[in-house]
Amino acid sequence: MFPKRVYRPDVLAASNRTPQRLPRGRHGLPRRFIVHNQRERMLVAVAEAVAEQGYPTTTVADIIARARLSRRTFYEHFADKQECFLAAYDTVVEQMLRGIRHAYEHGGRRWTDRVHAGLRAFVSYLAAEPAFARMCIVEVVAAGPEARSRRDAAMRTFIEFLEPGREQAPRGVVVPPLAGEIVVGGIYEVIYARLLRDAAGDLTELLPELLYCALVPYVGHRAAARAVRDAQARDAAAAARLAADAQAEAPTAAAAGRDDALVPGEEPPADDPPAR
Amino acid sequence: MGHQQGTPSPQLPGTRGAPARSRRGLLLDAVAEVVREHGYHGASVSRIAAAAGVSRNAFYEHFANKEECFLAAYDESVEEALRLIRAAARADDGWERQLEAGVAAFLAYAASRPARAWLCIVEPLAAGPRALARRDAALRAFAAALDRCRDGRRASAPSLLTELVAGGVYEVVYRRILAGRAASLPELLPAVMYVWLAPLAGPERAAAAARAAARRQAGGAAGPPALAIAATAGAVTEQDTDVS
């Protein structure tokens, strides 16, 4: 199946320099989220608080208690809860989108491969960072009009990734421009439903089906199913290579990190869409 | 409150002698208007009662609190929409035309009742867990309805497809309503047709069906059911027995 954490997001920088993950709670943030200053402490705090208790009931008091900062310090940086939330949202989404864009642009020659790479980066990020996922996908819709318009902008970026698919359609077929919006909206909804159930960890397992759904309006059933199979085979091969390399280089580290890199014993889903 | 009980409820236009909207009905209309203007959190019982032209006490005769009133309006709207969608889909033959008629009815309903559409599509996200559960149920019902329009095709497609298309249509509708463009919702019909049909029947046939749907819409021959819905949706609460 898929490497569980193919794309390691570079959250607030310095993440790659911290090789080990420390234990964390359901909605806890990874310790890699290196906090440089008071402002960033508050961004972490608002993300955690909102993920745990929801945007509407989160107060400035909750944020400063988590950040262990004074109310006065909070107001030196932000006018109110919303401003703090938006700053955290922007920081996280910018880094997430940078990672997705990078994966998409280097995802291969074929558009279907690029979509796969971008989608994989997206779901890997969300699965690895449940608190951020909750903030960017779930809480953002409850955080007022400004937050909703930021969400809208992020979705437009995703729609752009699908736009080249319109040229992949069979001759004579004009894919409605709205198709991309429906697909991206649908991906958001599917993820939203999983996050509401606290099932962020399952997101990577959805990747093959999400990929199929993203491609099929443009290339049709057979080509979409074929692209999914190819993508799965490539991911499995890459994961095996990674595991072998790690074992060869540092046997102990590889043993320790194995269940981090792979979902052990998992087979490709049986409902892999056949070509016909 | 006594004096208010004596006041006759205002007759809504288009009721043609049907009984005037009850005080409860007025409150349901009012909550939709108020949450659209102030959001769920800014909507107070006082505001809802004032918009309905009744006292706070009268409000509490019908609903325990704002949430109950909101959910009642939600349920009433969804029932109304479902009735129209079923009636439209029944009237047409063949799974593709049923899909077209049903989706057209849904879009026409949302376009003609923007406050109700706002309440059902936008506001549940901010109105607490019970509203969210209803939204989830509505999405599932929509997905199930889509699944009935597939003629047994493409059973091998991932099960996520239905959920994703239903969610995607919901999302696109949400974004239009949020942007104050509810009136433009019927324009979504061809794209919805295309996205659902492309995996099931292939892009070529999907494109043809989308073109045909657009033609019927533009020609005003959007199918008698869809037209009738567009015309009556505004007054449907007052004469709902005619539709079902």
Explained architecture:
The complex is a heterodimer of chains A (276) and B (244). Chain A is an all-alpha fold and 276 residues long. Chain A is 63% helix and 0% strand. Chain A has a single domain, classed as Tetracycline Repressor, domain 2 (Orthogonal Bundle), CATH 1.10.357.10. Chain A has helices at 38-53, 60-67, 71-77, 81-105, 111-128, 130-138, 144-162, 178-196, 207-249, 251-261. In chain A, helix 6 crosses helix 8 and helix 7 packs across helix 8 (178-196). The two termini of chain A are 22 Å apart. In chain A, 43% of the residues are buried. The longest helix of chain B has 26 residues, at 66-91. Chain B has helices spanning 2-6, 23-42, 45-52, 56-62, 66-91, 95-112, 114-122, 129-148, 160-178, 189-201, 203-218, 224-232, 240-243. Chain B is mainly alpha-helical. Classes of the chains: A mainly alpha (276), B mainly alpha (244). Chains A and B meet through helix 8 and helix 9 of A and helix 8, helix 9, helix 10 and helix 11 of B.
Using brief descriptors, characterize the structure shown.
heterodimer; A: 276 residues; mainly alpha; Tetracycline Repressor, domain 2; B: 244 residues; 0% strand; elongated; disordered C terminus
**Main sheet record of chain A:** none
User: What's the CATH superfamily of chain A, by name?
Assistant: Tetracycline Repressor, domain 2
End-to-end separation of chain A = 22 Å
Number of helices of chain B: 13
SSE series of chain B: HHHHHHHHHHHHH
What's the β-strand tally of chain B? Answer: 0
Global structural class of chain B: mainly alpha
Compile the SSE list and pairings.
The complex is a heterodimer of chains A (276) and B (244).
Chain A: H1 38-53, H2 60-67, H3 71-77, H4 81-105, H5 111-128, H6 130-138, H7 144-162, H8 178-196, H9 207-249, H10 251-261
Helix pairs in contact in A: 1-2, 1-4, 1-6, 4-5, 4-7, 5-6, 5-9, 6-8, 7-8, 8-9, 9-10
Chain B: H1 2-6, H2 23-42, H3 45-52, H4 56-62, H5 66-91, H6 95-112, H7 114-122, H8 129-148, H9 160-178, H10 189-201, H11 203-218, H12 224-232, H13 240-243
